[in-house]
Amino acid sequence: MAFAARIGAQLTYFQYPEAALRIGTSPEDLFAIAEVPRVEIPGNLTDSLTKLLDRLRPRCLFAPLAVGYHRDHLIARQIATREAVQRKLPIIFYEDLPYVGSFSRERLIRHAKLVDPRLRAGYVPIDLSGKLNNLTVYRSQVGPPEMQIVAQHATQLRDGQPFERIWFATSRDQLLKVLEPLPLL
């Protein structure tokens, strides 16, 4: 709620607890093991999200690439992918931090291609100090080590300048229309 308020986003909460509250806090419970895992999606979550998307009528969907295999990220990716196909919407995947910090470039590309063989990377310039400041609201999940991973990852993508890497399968022209006014390099 604090992050949504900070960036001026409207938060919709489906009364669906986080994985640690739902299924336990052990790594075996929170993280899947398989290379391309599928996780069970509760019907009420799918129904709630479908109704929300019907009301909002988005131009695209933005979802985690689920590189860390966190169960909630996998659920979000599966639902978003299905909805994007059904609604014929472009889908943009973001790299989950801090998990992506432990991936080699080759492993990340392999992961992205397993999600969708058509995915390719794009780079969006960011305000790194603003991003790091916004992450401070996640006190229970983000500490100094994670902040360092986020900063290092953002600045190693393109010549030391801070960027986010996104993954998409749609045409670059269609993506630019959706992302306007954000620059895409």
What does this structure look like?
The structure is a single chain. By secondary structure, the protein is of the alpha+beta class. Helix content is 46%, strand content 11%. The chain has helices at residues 2-7, 19-22, 27-30, 43-56, 71-87, 105-115, 128-135, 144-156, 172-179, and strands at 61-64, 91-94, 120-125, 163-168. Strands 1-2-4-3 form a 4-stranded mixed β-sheet, with helices on one face. Strand 1, helix 5 (71-87) and strand 2 (91-94) form a beta-alpha-beta unit. The longest helix has 17 residues, at 71-87. The two termini are 31 Å apart. 15% of the residues are buried.
Question: What does the secondary structure layout of this molecule look like, with pairings?
Answer:
Blueprint: H1 2-7, H2 19-22, H3 27-30, H4 43-56, E1 61-64, H5 71-87, E2 91-94, H6 105-115, E3 120-125, H7 128-135, H8 144-156, E4 163-168, H9 172-179
Parallel strand pairs: 1-2
Antiparallel strand pairs: 2-4, 3-4
Radius of gyration: 16 Å
* Total E-strand runs: 4
The CATH topology annotation reads as: Rossmann fold
**Element string (H = helix, E = strand):** HHHHEHEHEHHEH
Taking the sheet with the most strands, its summary is: 4 strands, mixed
Strand line-up of the largest beta sheet: 1-2-4-3
CATH superfamily: LmbE-like
The low-pLDDT segments are none
Query: Helix share of residues?
Result: 40-55%
Mean pLDDT, rounded to whole units? 83
- N- to C-terminal distance: 31 Å
By CATH reckoning, the class would read Alpha Beta
**CATH-derived architecture:** 3-Layer(aba) Sandwich
In the residues, how many domains can be counted?
A: 1
Silhouette:
globular
The SS-based structural class is: alpha+beta
Task: Count every helix, treating DSSP H or I runs of 4 or more residues as helices.
Answer: 9
What fraction of residues sit in β-strands? 5-15%
